[in-house]
Amino acid sequence: MAARILNGTEIAQEIRGEVAAEVKRLAAGGVRPGLAVVLVGHNPASEIYVRGKVKACEEVGIYSEKLTPAESSTTNEMLAVIEELNRRDDVDGILVQLPLPPQVDAKKVLLAVDPAKDVDGFHPMNVGFLSTQRPGMVPCTPAGVMEILRRSNIPLAGQEAVVVGRSDIVGKPAAMLLLNANATVTVCHSKTRDLAGVCRRADILVAAIGRAGMITRDFVKPGATVIDVGMNSVTDEGEFQKFFAGNAKKDETFRKKGSVLIGDVHPEVAEVAGAITPVPGGVGPLTIAMLMFNTVKAAKMRRGERVRELSKV
Ligand code: NDP
């Protein structure tokens, strides 16, 4: 039987609606949450991401500001930009779009962001809050993964969860959130032995690897829930055929654009999984929705308001 499709676009829309309502409520009290996005240089992918973030802010009523320091900026110049944003009361969230140019010490810059305004949740202070189950900023993509699971009524407590990938941005925080939700969590990476065997134990399998279609059907226990975080571009005809032969819709996109997006999960997994997130339209839309959520959360926390944690499952 074909897997249930977990529609990230719909879930993200629902969250954006909730955030917009919250922004309205705050406006009645004279508060307008504000997000500052810092974009250095002209990386085309970064420019697209930042445009999406600014547009999403407009839609939910968050004030947004794009700062574009010169590509030649030094670490010290970047630190000065961050310090100014830390000081400003109308800025609740600070997002530094990565990657930064090579001459800038990215770790130093991220460390300079006030943890209370760290809407990406990358500051070590927020990492510590997450691991000790204290209120803080949770990284957007893993928080989005939890929202998909929660809003799709996938049980987590006592379930076997396997996360493939251990990045600070996705894999590790996703594992921590699943652990906090009482799943039994295994984290896999490039040195894991018998990866397919470990993955087959999973009731919930999260793939955050960055390798097109790597998770094939032999990695998946029949009926498991599969969350595909990967976003990979297929541009090669042979590779396209390997994944999408006979798929008329994908074929049309490939012919038109010269590329299609694929996750880390092979399309054939939809034949064995119980539920699965599509790519595109799965985890991706949640990332921006959770950024909006985090900005409003930061605005409330900075003003001492109690915050309802979305991801408490
Ligand atoms: P990273 O490259 O930082 O991490 C990849 C992880 O996968 C590493 O831990 C690596 O292991 C592991 N890995 C790589 N190859 C293998 C392998 N053959 N077997 C087992 N594990 C392997 O990537 P990110 O976490 O930043 O991103 C992962 C994916 O998610 C990417 O496709 C990215 O584009 C996508 N992404 C999507 C977002 C969204 O909004 N949907 C947001 C952020 C990311 P090791 O540590 O041993 O090297």
What does this entry look like structurally?
This protein has helices spanning 8-28, 44-60, 75-87, 106-112, 124-131, 140-151, 171-180, 195-199, 237-244, 248-257, 283-302; strands at 4-5, 34-38, 63-67, 93-96, 160-164, 184-188, 204-207, 225-228, 232-234, 260-262, 275-276. It has 313 residues and is α/β, with parallel strands linked by helices. The protein has two domains: 30-115, Rossmann fold; 140-286, 3-Layer(aba) Sandwich (Rossmann fold). The strands form three sheets. A six-stranded parallel β-sheet has the order 1-11-8-7-5-6. A three-stranded parallel β-sheet has the order 3-2-4, with helices on both faces. Strands 9-10 form a two-stranded antiparallel sheet. Helix 1 runs parallel beside helix 11, helix 2 (44-60) crosses helix 11 and helix 3 packs parallel to helix 4. The chain starts with a strand and ends in an 11-residue tail after the last helix. It binds NADPH dihydro-nicotinamide-adenine-dinucleotide phosphate (NDP). Residues 141, 164-167, 169-171, 188-192, 195, 208-211, 229-232, 283-284, 287 line the site of NADPH dihydro-nicotinamide-adenine-dinucleotide phosphate.
